[in-house]
Amino acid sequence: MGSITTEAKVGLFILIGMLLLGYMTMQVGQRGVGIKKGYNVDVVFDNVAGLNKYSSVQIAGVEVGRVEDILLKDGKALVRLRITPSVTLEKDVSAAIKTRGVLGDKYIEITPGTRGMAALEPGEQIRNVERQADIDRLLNQISAIADDVKTVSGTLSNVLGGQAGQDSIGGLLENMQALTRNINSLVVSNEATIRSMLLNAQELTNNLNRVVVQNDDKVGEVIENLRGASREMEKTFASFSQIADEVNRGEGTIGQLMKDNTTITNLNKTLASLQEVSDKINQGKGTLGKLVNDEETVNNLNQSLSGINRYVTKAEQFRTFLGYRGEYLWDKSNFKSYLDIKIQPKQDQFYLLGLVSDPRGRLTVRDYTPTGNVTTRTEEWDKSGLLFNVQIGKRFRNVVLRGGILESTGGFGMDYMALNDRLKLTFEAFDFSSDRNAHLKGYADVQLFKYLYLTGGWDDFISNRGNSSGFVGFSIRFEDDDLKYLLTSTPIPK
Asked: What angle do CA 211, 217, 218 make, to 5 degrees?
């Protein structure tokens, strides 16, 4: 046999290569890009932009299938997945479209469901779907936000830009610095006063606490009285129930009236007689009939009744209050007493008249000019005389303003009413003079019972004459109707 030529060798090599290429093509055609083995499940997404056919399906980063087909169903994307036969999906698995790497390749990530739950059958649909973020919509929102920020920054630039804006900011900062300095100066200069006020408030709290502790037995007695009243009311209700039972059985006067037919017949006759009298009056017969049917008499009577009604209404609006107030001054170890009459012609207006007994007395300033023409000014305290109050007041909602003569000097006061007028906070200022501090007073009244009030506060707390003193006390207030009731209820000895 002759040797093989070079041309025959080349032709044989090319034939073998073509056979290998054909075989590999057939293998690739049989396997395909996707997975031919396994089972199909469906999942529906609102948007599958960027997801391609034959994209990977993964669980925990491990490929378990491929996207076999993408269809349009009812305006949404139906994605059909081919899952490897060895992988079982529970019915509560969830699917989401994820992005891999920098190039943004899309794939489907499946989150496993509950272990032991029934598995998805071939052709079933995954119900739990995580919504994919829409990048285009997000970019549009970011663009709108950027436009808004640009508009705001432009507005701020127009307002604060330029010399006028710089001057405004500079002036604002200077004002803030000045305000800070003023507040700091005020606190430093009044540090002693503020400390004294805090100590006084603490002492007042301790005194009130002692008063409450001392009256603990009385409070318990009041509660026990209320319990006794409750038991008496229960007995009264039981008596009412017994009376109602007797009436239902026809016992007693009322029971006989309701059950006895004779009594009802007599009552009907009485009503018939009254009807006859009423008919005669309507017909104008008799004195009463003429009075009712005569228009002139009726008009005169109506006018008289209207005048009486106006007088009675005015008298009912006019109220009078009488009150006593005692204040125990700690520094003086003595009581300061007030006796007031409050006349209130209107709901929001009143007049106040009163007498004041002050253990410190009344300060009198006198000038003496003895021989030598040298004038000497002396201050004397008159402890024998009484001081008086004459004030007019007006109420505006919870605030009461009053002014006039306070303790025989000109001044004014302000009250704040709270808790349905059971708590009153008061500030008074009077006795203004150039050579001494004004008389300032602050206190609070708390209603304990109907007529009794507990009071406490600080009197003349900026005095430069040594008259500053805290106090605690009580006050009693009666209205004229209350006084009438108390006087008529007081037993008269025989």
From this structure: 80
The model's pTM: 0.38
Beta carbons of 41 and 79 less than 8 angstroms apart: no
CATH number (2.60.40, 3.30.2320, 2.40.160, 3.30.70) of 318-489 reads 2.40.160
Residue 55 burial (C-beta neighbours within 10 Å; 0-12, 13-18, 19+)? buried
Whole-number Å distance between alpha carbons of 331 and 158: 65
Q: What angle do CA 43, 49, 51 make, to 5 degrees?
A: 60
Report, in angstroms and rounded to the nearest whole number, the Rg of the chain calculated over CA atoms.
51
Phi-psi region of 75 (alpha: psi -120 to 50; beta: other; left: phi over 0): left
Structure tokens at 180: 């800070």
Domain residue extents for the chain? 1-30, 32-132, 137-188, 221-311, 318-489
Burial letters 285-307, b for 16+ CB under 10 A, else e: eeeebeeeeeeeeeeeeeeeeee
Whether the Cβ atoms of residue 93 and residue 110 lie closer than 8 Å to each other = yes
Query: In this predicted model, what pLDDT tens digit does every residue of 342-399 receive, in sequence order?
Result: 998 888 999 999 999 888 777 666 665 665 565 555 566 666 678 889 999 999 999 9
What average pLDDT score do residues 275-281 get? Answer: 78
Cα–Cα separations (whole angstroms), residue 110 to 43, 56, 80, 89, 170: 11, 11, 13, 9, 61
The Cα–Cα gap between 185 and 46 comes to: 68
